[in-house]
Amino acid sequence: MEKFTDNFSLAQEILTRMVExxxxxxxxxxxxxxxxxxxxxxxxxxxxxxQGGLVAYQDYLKVRYLDVRQEDIDxxxxxxxxxxxxxxxxxxxxxxxxxxxxxxxxAGTGANGIPSGTIWIGWGSIQEVHSTCLTLEERRERNTAHxxxxxxxxxxxxxxxxx
Length: 163
Known about the structure:
Blueprint: H1 7-21, E1 25-29, H2 35-40, E2 50-55, H3 59-66, H4 70-76, H5 81-95, E3 99-106, E4 118-124, E5 129-135, H6 140-162
Parallel strand pairs: 1-2, 1-3
Antiparallel strand pairs: 3-4, 4-5
Helix pairs in contact: 1-6
């Protein structure tokens, strides 16, 4: 995969690939606060594939709109692999999209024994979800910026490997 120098280039390449494939994309974000969606939609033509995004900062919104199981939040924490993967599937369902990208994490202050800078990102479809955990040690703004870039990179790699 080509090495991209910035998020705008990543967003352009995602647009090209998604339009070529005729697929749709949505986002479900917590700690990145809509930054993934904002990055994707800064490229002219994004409306050809991008359907929408939900910033679900509060747990009850993840449960209500993204079908995240409260039991999994209670068992694993909201910053966990099961939760981010449910967010991907939930966004695909909510927005009727082929694919989704999701994020959940403690970008600033940690909680429940999980350190600051722990961010889970997920991507994929209802049938196939991938995720990774980032352990970052920057300030909040840098952590969310890094997580946004990694989410876009991972999603683009997924597209290249899947199609």
